[in-house]
Amino acid sequence: QVQLVQSGAEVKRPGASVKVSCKASGYIFTDNYIHWVRQAPGQGLEWMGWINPKSGATNYEQRFQGNVTMTRDTSISTAYMELNSLRSDDTAVYYCARDYSYGSNPGYWGQGTLVTVSS
Amino acid sequence: QSVLTQPPSASGTPGQRVTISCSGSSSNIGRNYVYWYQQFPGTAPKLLIYRNNERPSGVPDRFSGSKSGTSASLTISGLRSEDEADYYCAAWDDNLRGRLMFGGGTKLTVL
Lengths: 119, 111
Hints:
B: mainly beta; 3-stranded antiparallel beta sheet; globular
């Protein structure tokens, strides 16, 4: 069965960077896109972008352009999301999610990683 | 402010039918599939409906989806207390090289 296991919670200072990992299993890692979605406390879901694990191509939501980098390591079936220049309003749970079928909306989700930005 | 508009809240009593709407535009719902997600507090979202009206295996047939023009809806029949959760619609938007848009979410309360 498809499983996505994310790295643990992080606490960061404003201006720092955070890198969240997402280890996939139960399917061929390069066959499906990985999305990153975040959810601020008490707020809704916000799409950040996707990475095509096969080619490494990315598509970032415009508001995150220049601040986010999505990468992958196919040898260990793991995707990464790095967010730079953190601000307090970046405090959120960050989810990775695999598309349900190739190129579709997310269908399988990781457990989420809480990133807290605080001085 | 979300591009896809959902009512912030909905409610019903056990056994009732509840419908949650999701309104978009020609660049998103009008051209692309709508997906629905269910989320309980402190947990990851779960896929409930894909491609407008399809259910993944394991999702009860009490949940159904539909789409017409630039709007979509999620209907829950035979409402149960365990359906109390947040529900989100999502669709791709073809503007700006494609963006995945989520609705603002609807908090469903079972009275």
